[in-house]
Amino acid sequence: MPNLVQLDALWMNADLLESVIQLQHLERLSAPRMQGSHPDDHSYFLPLFTGSSKITHLDMSDSHLVHDRVLVQITRACPKIEVLALSGNSCLTHAGLIEWCNGDLHISEPGSSSAQDPFLAQPNLSLFTTSLTSINFSNCNKIETEGFEALFQHSHRLQDLNLMSTKVGDTALEILADNNKHLRSLVLTCCAAISAQGLSRILRTSRELESVSFMYCSRVSAMVFFQQPLWTCTQLRELRFSLNKRHLDWVENGLSAAESASMVAMAQLLDSGNNNNNNNNNNNNATGDASTTTTTTQDTTGEIHMMDLLAEEGSEFHEPLFQHFVEGIEIPVSPSDDENDKETCRKSTDSTRSPLLSSPVTPTPPTTIQQYRQHMILAQLYRQIERLTQLRVLDMRDLHLPLDLDSGLWRLGSLSQLEMLEWTGLQAPLREQEVAWLTSSSGGSSSEEEKPLPVLRQLLIKGGCGMSNLERAALQAGRPELDLQLIQVREM
After folding, report:
1. What is the DSSP letter of 274?
2. DSSP label at 374?
3. CA dist 285 to 135, 276, 288, 291, Å?
4. Which pLDDT does position 439 carry in this prediction?
5. Mutual orientation of helices 320-327 and 257-271 as an angle, nearest 10°?
6. What share of the chain is helix, strand, coil (3-state, %, to 5)?
7. How far, CA to CA in Å, does 481 sit from each of 12, 172, 477?
8. H/E element holding 394?
9. Residue 277: which of 301, 299, 308, 298 has the closest Cα?
């Protein structure tokens, strides 16, 4: 026993911790749901951890005994901690994290002594001087975002973070992205305070990110997929997200007055460099040559919209500001081979594309302005996802959009490593065309390797629309290895 290096003790009583901590070689201690009668005695843990300086992995989740002072004492007594799991500790607050990072702890607790703890008077080991690489604060709902801002400001080596159901905000995520360039996994499920602003900073700067989850974040909308630059986390292996219903307002009603004003302002910035040239062209064409027109349009307010250059061919619908809103300001006038996925509602013209990465049908032009907007949103969503060619798990929830071939479903054919795919809340059922695409091969061969999503083993469709019994039978016959589950879907 004296040479024990790892101990897992669920529901351990705190009174037993004294004998456990005397194990001088202990490196990993897992003691979740610790019980005891010392909730207000913040000095109780100090002598227990002072002889355990070799601990590198510590799990004290779901314990009412872990207060702000206890957290500081443990981390100072065990400076080699790399993995710290404190999920579900309702006694931890942002004040404790702030004081922990700043080095001066002045936290008043009921029944605490007014005299300063001698141990707390020692120089602080701020986070960036420790070996912390993994932190789990999930369900610590008394920590406001200011605490996470301090935590991430002093953390430069974090790789794995679980912040599920916390109050972390956009500013904290921006600090996290700026100070930690080696993030590998990030769980933000049920974080109500974050929006596309902070999340986009993570997705566009964390090149080593392998797993990210932002499901059921009420302020995160489809905007996280919009705009430029594209995500840089192309090594993602697991992507789980859900969309709130904000994009349904955009589909039905277009941009709000505030959003339109914002887009007009960006369009003005984009076109400001061309105003002088356009004025010169207008002067040169003052002779009234009706056959000569400029490539941009100008309205009565003098605003020039270069986005008019990107009007959809063969479609009577075109909203420059909405396209600007979805695709961003870095849209080239003539899409290159790398950028022709900006096209919507029509087949790609890139002859070098693999047959599996080209639309197997001739897309039908939208017949309503709502369909046009849906296609714009889906095109940008697919444009982000299809670049994540290392994905193994793709979980798309609360979509409320039609995932059909006309809308670009075929773009997922680039995900040749995908093993599990989940869709929740489909607006329209999968039709014969989609099933035929999933069971087809590029050269008419039945070879599994040449089919779209060749290693897909599980397809879950939950809520919303699914597929008819006929299409389900055809899919199961064409891909017998596929575990197909339809859960609480509407009857077709």
Report:
1. G
2. H
3. 65, 14, 6, 10
4. 92
5. 80
6. 35, 15, 55
7. 45, 44, 9
8. strand 393-397
9. 298
Residues 6+ apart with CB under 8 A from 485: 458, 459, 460, 461
What is the spatial distance between Cα 110 and Cα 160, in angstroms, rounded to a whole number?
34
Pairing, β 483-487 against β 134-136: unpaired
Written as one string, the DSSP assignment of 168-230 is: --HHHHHHHHHH-TT--EEE-TT-TT--HHHHHHHHTT-TT--EEEETT-TT--GGGG-SSSP
Structure tokens at 256: 């709000």
Give 483's strand partners: 458
Q: Using an 8 Å Cβ cutoff, are 137 and 160 in contact?
A: no
- Predicted TM-score (pTM) of this structure: 0.80
* Mean pLDDT in residue range 210-218: 97
**To 10 degrees, what angle do helices 369-385 and 246-253 make?**
140
Neighbours of 24 (CB within 10 A): 12
What is the distance between the alpha carbons of residues 291 and 156, in angstroms, rounded to a whole number? 61
E strands present in 260-331: 297-298, 304-305
Residue in the block written with tokens 């029509």: 346
Report the alpha-carbon distance of residue 277 to residue 477 in Å, rounded: 61
Q: Name the packing angle between helices 320-327 and 369-385 (round to 10°).
A: 20
**Quick count: other Cβ atoms within 10 Å of Cβ 141?**
14
Structure token digits, residue 469 = 């019994």
Residue listed under structure tokens 């849906």? 374
Chain Cα centroid distance, residue 204: 10
Q: What is the pLDDT of residues 89-143, one digit of tens each?
A: 988 999 888 877 776 444 444 344 434 444 344 444 444 455 789 999 999 999 9
> d(Cα 307, Cα 342) in Å, to the nearest integer?
13
Residue 336 identity (one-letter amino acid): S
DSSP tag of 356: G
Q: pLDDT band for position 317 (50/70/90)?
A: confident
The number of angstroms, rounded, from the C-alpha of 286 to the middle of its chain's C-alpha atoms is 52
